[in-house]
Amino acid sequence: HPGRHDEVGIEFLGTTFGKPYTLQTNVYIRGSGDGEIIGREMKFHLWFDPTKDFHHYAILWSPKELIFLVDDVPIRRYPRKSAATFPLRPMWVYGSIWDASSWATEDGKYKADYRYQPFVARYTDFKACGCTAYAPAWCRPVSVSPFHSGGLSRQQYWAMRWLQSHHLVYDYCRDQKRDHFLTPECY
After folding, report:
1. Residue 7 bears catalytic tag
2. Per the domain annotation, does 125 fall within a domain?
3. CA-angle at 158, arms to 139 and 48, nearest 5°
4. Candidate list 11, 41, 65, 106, residue with the active-site label
5. Which of 1, 19, 42, 104 would bridge 13 by S-S if both were Cys, CB 3.0 to 4.6 A apart?
6. Burial 106-131 (b: 16+ CB within 10 A, else e)
């Protein structure tokens, strides 16, 4: 979609034989498709093979934060620090398979092998619900917290910290090659 749209996503970047699959979470704010792409990516090595069985992937998007979850375990929290660093525009839900092998698998070292097509993705138990960023105050988004107060419980927070310390392989805020003037939320 050309123009300055917002995007929140989960992507599987594939794998090479004997290595774990990589899951990437993305947050783009008014910058995709217009030459000013500023990705806010975090990449994780999965602790399981996602091709062997179904797993639950979720994005909880409330007016104050985004929480990414895998099998009900939070892996990333992206707080709203300002309107300039938080996705607020209307979005669509897409599920697709696309070839990103020019950059995704070890920086393009391994390309998609089309001898194995057709490539198939299956979705079950899909749900979309919640409040928009401009919803009235009485609208209460779905919560991952057992206290239904929003945010994460202390146990969920520590589970996320543990997972990030053991499975996080890329964090845009820690990338020394990036211009962090464009990502003020990293400070």
Report:
1. yes
2. yes
3. 95
4. 11
5. 104
6. eeeeeebeeeeeeeeeeeeeeeeeeb
Query: Is residue 162 situated within a structural domain?
Result: yes
Q: Which residues pair with 5 in a beta bridge?
A: 32
150: three-class secondary structure by DSSP: coil
Residue 110 lies in domain = 7-180
CA distances (Å), 109 to each of 18, 100, 168, 173, in order? 15, 11, 21, 24
pLDDT profile of the chain (187 residues), mean per 10: 76 82 89 65 94 90 88 94 84 77 76 84 79 71 62 90 97 91 85
Residue 49 forms part of a structural domain: yes
Phi, psi for residue 46 in degrees, rounded to 5? -70, 145
Is 104 in contact with 111 (CB distance < 8 Å)? no
Side-chain half-sphere CA neighbours of 159 within 13 A: 14
